[in-house]
Amino acid sequence: MKDCTLYKMMDIIGKRWTLCILLELHKGDKYQKQFNELKAMLGDITPKMLSTRLKELEAHGLVEKELDSSAIPVKSFYSLSESGQEFIEIIKEIKGWGLKWKFDNPLCSVSDCRYCGVAKATDN
Amino acid sequence: MKDCTLYKMMDIIGKRWTLCILLELHKGDKYQKQFNELKAMLGDITPKMLSTRLKELEAHGLVEKELDSSAIPVKSFYSLSESGQEFIEIIKEIKGWGLKWKFDNPLCSVSDCRYCGVAKATDN
DNA sequence: CAGGATCCAAAAGGATACTG
DNA sequence: CAGTATCCTTTTGGATCCTG
């Protein structure tokens, strides 16, 4: 059972902040975002946690990191990979399910939700 | 951010075994399953863990429990609720994503996968 | 700007044994 | 059959401070 695909998927996506980070990377018009930018958007996440999650996501191929070594200090840019982009669809459905069955969240029910960045799965 | 629908969803579905339990309830032809039956299917799950997860899922409305008090000893039957049934679709997509991008799991790639009970999302 | 290091508190989960 | 209870280990995550 522990070699079940589904079980293993939870090691990738089942950790705190992970889905929110992916969604944050999806938000807005810029396809790349910097560390402190993400940190600010995520509010009360610690740098340690954000760093840990970004490394996991990069290792699993959902997130790509680009470095601008010419800048001083060095700048890093994070973006969704192709697989990460595709996973956003699932995230939307999870959110859609939550809005339908569990949470009456007005902020999430409008398309410009500043927390989640996507509306119900069917709207987007 | 912590009142984000997505963030809160992880408290419901992001715990170990949760998705596998839901999938187990979905498997097969019987729509109800007993505690020890589930336990056997899930292999190395402890009764404590299964009990905890089932209670959480019941509290969140994804799982329904029925008692046969006339039986001695009393028997309990678990099944997916309507919302739980609907969540199976998302589970299939998570699994489909995993098979496409991460894991080459032959057991999961065939429709009668004895571990997961469903094939790729598009097949089922 | 982009983290790393350290320390600590809390939670989660496994092992095992037991019960009505 | 359907769980509880207890104990104990491991993991996780938050706080805080530091650095090139």
What do these coordinates show?
Two copies of one chain form a homodimer. Chain A has a single domain, classed as Winged helix-like DNA-binding domain superfamily/Winged helix DNA-binding domain (Arc Repressor Mutant, subunit A, Orthogonal Bundle), CATH 1.10.10.10. In chain A, helix 2 packs across helix 5. By secondary structure, chain A is mainly alpha-helical. In chain A, a hairpin with a 6-residue loop joins strand 1 and strand 2. Helices cover 51% and strands 10% of the residues of chain A. Chain A is globular and about 50 Å long. Chain A has a two-stranded antiparallel ribbon. The model of chain A has no long low-confidence stretch (mean pLDDT 90). At the A-B interface, helix 1, helix 2 and helix 5 of A face helix 1, helix 2 and helix 5 of B. The structure holds a DNA duplex (20 and 20 nucleotides).
Instruction: List the strand order in the largest sheet of chain A.
Output: 1-2
What is the annotated CATH architecture of chain A? Orthogonal Bundle
CATH hierarchy, class of chain A: Mainly Alpha
CATH superfamily of chain A: Winged helix-like DNA-binding domain superfamily/Winged helix DNA-binding domain
Strand content of chain A: 5-15%
Molecular shape of chain A: globular
**Number of alpha- plus pi-helical segments of chain A:** 6
Unreliable parts of chain A: none
Average predicted confidence as pLDDT of chain A? 90
**Main beta sheet of chain A:** 2 strands, antiparallel
Distance between the termini of chain A: 35 Å
Tell me the number of strands of chain A: 2
H/E topology pattern of chain A? HHHHEEHH
Helix coverage percent of chain A: 40-55%
What is the C-alpha radius of gyration of chain A, as a whole number of Å?
A: 15 Å
Domain HTH hxlR-type (chains A, B): 4-106
Protein name (chains A, B): Transcriptional regulator
Keywords (chains A, B): DNA-binding, Transcription, Transcription regulation
Pfam families (chains A, B): HxlR (PF01638)
